[in-house]
Amino acid sequence: MTTTRNIALVAHDHKKAELLEWARFNRDSLAPHRLYATGTTGSMLADALDLDVHRFLSGPVGGDQQIGAAIAEGRIDTLIFFWDPLEPQPHDPDVKALLRLGALWNITIASNVATADHVISSPLFAAGYERRMPDQAPRDWQALTAPE
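Given the sequence above, the corresponding structure tokens read:
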């Protein structure tokens, strides 16, 4: 039995071709899942793969934040984000917030082809993997930061 995943696919401008090539190669593995993407990336993927891709806004105008909100709401469980470590991004705080939310909510995150290949080929990708959710109890930040 294959678990249907909610996969967000995001790529910075200089990484879009790389993500597109990866997605084409893995089209059959992606097809049974629900795909989400930011603006331009989503249009490219939908055209190239002939699959339904829910498109959020472009990353710089709020798409990264929309995906972050979907992660926090439990609607995204896998993030394939080919980000460009060599190119400054005007929306870098949004990118960092997106990655922070992915780590906080313990979702699968791949930031390059090697990791994405390992994720999509893992038996856990198709199986019913139960991720641990973060503790939602309020934290006593004063106790954590108080000097001893």
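The longest strand covers residues 6-11. Try to locate this feature in the token string yourself.
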